[in-house]
Amino acid sequence: MILSDKTIIKMLDENSLVIKPITKEQIQPASVDIRLGNTFSIVDDTPSGIITLESKTNYKTIKTDTYLILPGQFVLATTMEYFELPDNLTAFVEGRSSLGRMGLFIQNAGWVDPGFKGEITLELYNANRCAIELKCGRRVGQLVFAEMDDHALNPYNGKYQGQTDATGSRVFMDPDKF
Fold first, then answer.
1. Residue ranges of the binding site
2. So which residues are the signal peptide here (predicted)?
3. What per-residue confidence (pLDDT) applies to 178?
């Protein structure tokens, strides 16, 4: 079941769902707007020009209130908000259609597991032929919350738990998984 604004407000008031900072204007009828934080990371060039899944990928990270994403550029960014989801609630990350219509694709693999705590790292891609100026605090997407039929047996406690800032891939930490 998708949560309504009324249920989201109730959960925030009860502190069973944590979103900080948040304004009442961010709460939409069936979602919560997420805003762009001030941390951006791009993959560091490798001598071979190849990124492998078995070794750590290095990133160049900057903190700034304005970032110019170039045409065809991929950058990691973070949300301004910090989240704590209970173990019976999951969320979908959706980009804003008005930004998608400008060629800015926003994703985070689309899913936030029950029990997750931290800022959400967003993957941004500029599919336009022009650079796009990004500003900290700008609404860039939304979270749609869905209540599960029961509490998770194993709430999220993975390698991104507690992340802050734009967090790079940690796929190298689980080489036994596909």
1. 96-101, 113, 121-123, 142, 156, 159, 163
2. none
3. 45
Instruction: Of 100, 144, 150, give the one whose Cα is nearest residue 125.
Output: 100
CA distance 125 to 77: 11
* Structural domains of the chain ordered from first start: 5-44+60-152 (2.70.40.10)
Q: If DSSP codes are grouped into helix, strand and coil, which group holds residue 24?
A: helix
The tens digit of pLDDT for each residue in 55-90 reads 888 899 999 999 999 999 999 999 999 999 999 999
**Catalytic site residues?**
123
Report whether 75 contacts 42 (CB < 8 A).
Answer: yes
Pick from 135, 123, 113: nearest CA to 59: 123
Q: Residues within the annotated binding site for dCTP?
A: 96-101, 113, 121-123, 142, 156, 159, 163
